[in-house]
Amino acid sequence: MHRLLVLCYGIVAYLMFLGSFLYTIGFVGNWLVPKSIDSGGAVGGGMSALIVDGLLLGLFALQHSVMARPAFKRRWTRIVAEPAERTTYVFLTAVVLGLLFWQWRPLPASIWNLTSGPLRTLVWGVNGLGWVVVLISTFLIDHFELFGLRQVMTYFRGQAPPKIDFQARAFYRYVRHPLMVGFLIAFWATPTMSVGHLFFAAMTTAYVLVAIRLEERDLATVHGESYRQYQRQVGMLIPRPARALTGVVAAPNKGLR
């Protein structure tokens, strides 16, 4: 019964996060959602809106990074069953994202607005490309392990926890964090940039840069010279075209996890 409950918990958390991910696409792009980054709620009042939005983004950054640190996970798994640790992380991420969407204060004043139809289409195409890169990158790692489903499924079956050996293939041969590259493209590529959207993009970019450093410190500690060699050969977010990846097996990269 305990195994079944953990499995159901994992499935529910995955579906919640999937819904949050799809809502994020609509939220950032002002597409098909009741409340987006620029509409659907009371328009914020300058500084007060920036404070509220900053606190919401800060809460997401805190939850997302603190729960990813090995020291926290060692203590956390004394409370939460280890097979459900990743699922709990995913579940709480979905909850925090839901709070952000609900309480976000739009600041719709325009920074730029492209009026050319072909140019707007081009920018939206780049935006879509960013989301495609995000999705593909999750499968290049291990999509179901990344979101906790593999762990709860193997626990339900009574199998040993999965051991993921991540091979640096496809995007990971050119940048160490293609998942984050995809998010940054999606957040910045918009034909209409509002004050609120600019604040969101700038804050999430700052968070990505800090969180990557924390994650890579942990990866280098765990995997030693093999990961440091990968760092030397492959750019963090920008490709290094003059260098070729030669026989490096990268450490598992769970996307600011």
Commentary on this structure:
This protein is mainly α and 257 residues long. The chain has one domain (2-233). The chain has ten helices and two strands; from the N terminus they run ααααβααααβαα. Strands 1-2 form a two-stranded antiparallel ribbon. It is globular. The model is unreliable at 247-257 (pLDDT under 50).
Salient structural properties:
mainly alpha; 257 residues; 10 helices; 63% helix
Give the termini separation: 29 Å
* H and E string: HHHHEHHHHEHH
Tally the beta strands: 2
Low-confidence stretches at least 5 residues in length (pLDDT < 50)?
Answer: 247-257
The total domain count is 1
Structural class: mainly alpha
Instruction: Label the overall shape.
Output: globular
Kindly summarize this structure in a few lines:
Helices cover 63% and strands 3% of the residues. The chain contains 10 helices and 2 strands. The protein has helices spanning 2-29, 47-66, 70-76, 85-103, 117-141, 143-146, 149-157, 178-188, 195-223, 225-233; strands spanning 110-113, 192-194.
